[in-house]
Target: DMT family transporter
Amino acid sequence: MDQLVKQRSQALTALLVLTLIWGYNWVVMKSALQYAGPFQFAAMRTFFGALVLFLVLYVTRRPMGLTEFPTMLLLGILQNVGFTGVLMWALVQGGAGKTAVLTYTMPFWTLLFAWPMLGERIHGWQWLAVISAVLGMLFIFDPLHLRADSFSMLLAVLSGVSWAVSAIMTKQLHRRHPTLDLINLTAWPMLLGSLPMVLIAFLVPAPSMQWSGYLIGAVLFNVVLCGALAWLLWLFALQRLPAGVASMASMLAPVIGVIAAWIQLHEVPDGMEMIGMALILFSLSLISILMMRPAYHGIPPASANV
Model:
């Protein structure tokens, strides 16, 4: 019993460190845009992140073979261009905290898309989560008083949609290959998806990158901490905790992002945004709580590396 308590305490500590890394990274990414364009930063993050993950595969002697190239390529485009690239674009004009919350609507979109794509119907308390998320987005967008960052908010939602579709595709792939290693399943799409991201970075006009200590540190933070270390912490926690508990803890990341942006970037949400964020966070928490039930068979939120 003491050993079990110790293992769970270690796993919860790993999750706390993980959510701090993911949550604070929204401030890091927003600040890095002072020195690099959004697609330039996204390209560096994804390409070098993939290299680090392949190094982890090699060091830990995990399988490195490529499975289902077309599927892995599409996953890579969704995760790297549709998710990472679009969220970086959203951060150009949008606040770090608000972008974090809107991007983390991913579990809500996953519930909706799993219905037609996987035949997993929404039922019971899940409807409350859906309604809460929709109301939250309406409060944040405030369609009766459109603001300058409305396009940025739309991009943040689209990044969450892309993340959700990739999560469903990942589950479909896992059903076909149940023994496929999780890091392998992350490394290959990241590498394949980083190539079009690099191409976009070269084709889209942007000011020259200002190589500064902060930019280098931001890239290393994303590649090493949010990439390799985050995955190792995530896998360590999943081995010792129920998936629902681990996923619920990861939902703290957007909360930390909002608080960090408030303190460091002085992004103070107005009343409507606060209500909207609270409703979305309630929705995410409810989805995670429902995942803890033994009868639940839905898709757990994938780790975001953000």
